[in-house]
Amino acid sequence: MYSYRLFLAGPSEDINKYIPVINSTGHKVVGLSQNSSESLRQVKSIQPDLVILDTSGASWGEFIELAQIFFEDGYPVVLIIDYPQKDKASKLGEKRFFPFIVKPVNEEVLPLVMELAVNTYKSTQRLEEEVKRLRKELVTRKVIEKAKGIIMETMGLSEREAFRRIQKQSMNKRVSMRKVSEAIIMAFEMDEIVN
Hints:
The protein is an alpha/beta fold. It has helices spanning about 10-25, 35-45, 60-70, 85-90, 110-155, 160-175, 175-195, and strands at about 5-10, 30-35, 50-55, 75-80, 100. It folds into two domains: about 5-105, Rossmann fold, CATH 3.40.50; about 130-195, Arc Repressor Mutant, subunit A (Orthogonal Bundle), CATH 1.10.10. The protein is about 65% helix and about 10% strand.
C-alpha cells in the first residue's frame, strides 16, 4: 500500500487523536489546522496527497465548501462526521462524492476509506478528462459537418467529396480538419455579410 501525506483539519482535541492512528498505518500527517482559512493556506503550501476534515463542532456548510475547494484544487478528501450528520453526508452525492467515516473512527476502517478517497478521486479525474475529450470531439465533428454542408451547397459536391476536400486541405496545410472547417465556415459567413 502507498504511504500518503495527509493534512488534517478540525477541532484540535479531535484531530490530535487521529495522528497516532494515521502514523500506525504507515501514512504521515504533514499539516494540521483548526479553521478554514488556515487550512486553505496550508494545503496550498504543503500539497498533501489527501485531506481529512473533521466536521465536529464546525459549520457543516463551511466544511463542505472547504471540501469542494480542496477537491477542485486536486486533493482527495475524507470527511469525519458525527453520527447526527450522517444523513447530511449521505446527500453529498448530489454534488460531489466525499467518502466519510462516522465517529468514532475505527483504526481498520480509516486506511480503507483513505484508499477509497484517493481511488475515487483519480477515477473522477479520469472520467472528467474523458468527458472533456468527448465534448471537444463532438464540437469538432459538428464543425466539420457544417463545413461539409457549405461545400456541398456551394460547390455541388457529394458528402464524400466535400469531406475529402476538407481532408486534403488539412493534409496540404498541415493543420487539423477542424481548423480547415472553421476557416471554411468563416469565409462563407464573411461572404454572406458582404453580399
